[in-house]
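#random but structural
TW: two for the price of one
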Amino acid sequence: MLTFDEMDGAGSGSSSANDDGGKDKRVKSADKRLINCNTVDVNQLMPLKYKWAWEHYINGCANNWLPSEVPMGKDIELWKSDRLSADERRVIMRNLGFFSTAESLVGNNITLAIFKHVTNPECRQYLLRQAFEEAVHTHTFHYIVESLSLDQGEVFNMYNEVNSIHAKDKFEMELTSAVLDPKFSTDTFEGRQKFLENLIGYYVIMEGLFFYSGFVMILSFHRQNKMTGVGEQFQYILRDESIHLNFGIDLINGIKAENPDLWTPEFQEHILGKIRQAVELEYNYAVDCLPRGILGLSAPMFRDYVQYIADRRMERIGLKPQYGSKNPFPWMSETIDLGKEKNFFETRVTEYQTAASLAW
């Protein structure tokens, strides 16, 4: 029986010689590229080229959690009582309806589109981690719905029945449709631009913009000691999403750096148009969730907030801010550190711990 080394050299005339006469065929760091890398077949992590991708993976692992670890007793008691108004219940239901489908859209995009076309091993390692986290987030909304004995059909079918939710989901699915085509390829200039658009649509718009109105609304309950179990789970999700956003922006900027021809003035204007459209969709969603003010929140406040968030996202990918709006929710800076976003999203996150030792 041949040993592993003998099998490796069988047919070559030598157990140590390569087919090309001894030329070193090992993958070098310089050979790696984020997309269209022909030298990568197996997930060969070493040598690491994109250390930021590995760092995001480690940070994600340090934030490991499951929804079943969060007690829901107080939430159940409050939900069954008469101490929540109809408008407060509407906000909670609308957000559960949006997030329950949005997280699955992101998960599908990662596994069916992004993973296929990102050829770098360390980035793929993080994408595997993110896909798991998206599954945990979907699990979270099921856990909340089940705990509160909500109508599952009502919550999980809102993307069909609530216009503001349907519009956001449709917007994102349109960004993915071309990339999910079996014939899609990043070999062409047009294909690479479309893939970059897809990444911006999901990381910058979906996870960096569409999620944040919901975070404000649910965390407003948590600040007032209402629905604390739901609020705690949203805080865990928010910590995950901050790493997702950080990774996505690094990936986008990395692809831009390796393919500078993609970032044309026309493409930049196209992306600005998509972000402007997303801002209006998110504002319409806030109006739908908040027909009347609750918890110190009102729909008009969210126009400024969404515009403020959009400006921060555009800066991160090299676009000029478009709105100049101020953050109407300064307390959110304490929760998600938006006021220090440049530092928070560009440096290593050291605050993350495992779920058992997280302190709020």
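TW: number two ↓
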Amino acid sequence: MGFSTVQCNEFVEVLASKAPVPGGGGASALVGAVGTALGNMVGSLTVGKKKYADVEEEMWELKGKADALQKELLTLIERDAEVFEPLSKAYGMPRATEEEKAEKARVMEIVLKDACSVPMEIMEKCCEALDLIVEFAAKGSALAISDAGVGAAFCKAALQGASLNVYINTKSMANREYAEELNQKADAMFEKYTKLADEVFEGVLGRLK
């Protein structure tokens, strides 16, 4: 099943079920795509307006980047499901003998790395999206400013959600040096971009109230 192409009600129903995928990672990717699209909408409502002629070229450039990010985040919904399935199977591997324990540990290290790679990428894409939304909020049509604020809030939520999917997997890694390296990368994105998202949101809120 292509989780990025099913109807919204179907996605939500499967998400609520006991099916292993989609889960928090895929949902985060979807929310990130929606947040990016909201920023992109600000650009769409800005281009072609005489009042914003001086930022027209920049808006088109930002929109092009947002278009690409939306597609990449939707693709990551599918990728998250693909990497979680082997991890789910690995957790169920037998470990009655020393040989079985060793084989399970070997497989777990491989699939945990793969399972971390997708939420890390979701985080990275959300950070890129927030950088765009900063510009959409600052220079885009004032009539659509609320959408920039919502986009920032969604991308923040997606960033936070993806981070939890990184941390739950690094926690299980035997290679602690590699796990800490990933944690530090995730920490840095989390700290910088949740603050940036809050700044955008508060700025929009201040303009509306």
